[in-house]
């Protein structure tokens, strides 16, 4: 009896710990809906590549699309995942976007649980589209579907 309870407890504990490693149905549904992405006018500040992701740091005058916790932030961190990183890596390596450049990004401005999902689906400036919304959203959908949570 004790052995059976231990196995049940260990299984529940294991599932609860691994459920956080991936995208659940709510997350996949939200991030897959094109209506959940907003156009944001921003000034490019910097970027960082880490853990297979690219983080864009931008300053935004109108922060109303973001959570109120961003109100006093000088920079907002936007995130590129999956194949969108490959596209932007080339652009950043060629220095096609530089500090101080005005860009328009279309991103999710969603906070779920305790994490921000400011995923970028489109990047452009006045005369050039670096990442199209159709391709960017398709890449996000592929990424979240490839990284589903167990529960």
Low-confidence stretches: none
Strand content: 25-35%
User: Mean of residue pLDDT?
Assistant: 89
Lateral strand order in the biggest sheet? 3-2-1-4-7-8
Order of helices and strands: HHEEEHEEEEEH
Task: Summarize this entry quickly.
The protein is α+β, with helices and mostly antiparallel strands and 151 residues long. It is 33% helix and 31% strand.
Q: Any overview of this molecule?
A:
Helices cover 33% and strands 31% of the residues. The chain has 151 residues and is an alpha+beta fold. The chain is elongated. The relative contact order is 0.22.
From the structure above, extract its key features.
151 residues; six-stranded antiparallel β-sheet; alpha+beta; two-stranded antiparallel sheet
Question: Layout of SSEs?
Answer:
Elements (H helix, E strand, L loop, with lengths): L1 H17 L6 H8 L4 E14 L2 E7 L16 E5 L2 H11 L8 E7 L1 E3 L2 E3 L2 E5 L4 E3 L1 H14 L5
Antiparallel strand pairs: 1-2, 1-4, 2-3, 4-7, 5-6, 7-8
């Amino acid at each position: 009896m004790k052995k059976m309870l231990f196995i049940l407890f260990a299984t529940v504990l294991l599932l609860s710990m691994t459920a956080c490693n991936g995208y659940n149905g709510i997350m996949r549904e939200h991030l897959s809906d094109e209506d959940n992405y907003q156009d944001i006018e921003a000034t490019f500040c910097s970027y960082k590549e880490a853990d297979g992701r690219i983080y864009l740091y931008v300053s935004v005058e109108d922060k109303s699309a973001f959570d109120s916790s961003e109100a006093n932030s000088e920079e907002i961190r936007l995130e590129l995942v999956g194949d969108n990183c490959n596209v932007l890596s080339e652009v950043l390596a060629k220095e096609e976007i530089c500090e101080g450049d005005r860009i328009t990004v279309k991103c999710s401005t969603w906070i779920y649980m305790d994490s921000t999902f400011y995923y970028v689906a489109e990047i452009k400036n006045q005369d050039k589209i670096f990442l199209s919304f159709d391709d960017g959203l398709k890449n996000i959908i592929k990424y979240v579907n490839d990284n589903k949570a167990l529960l």
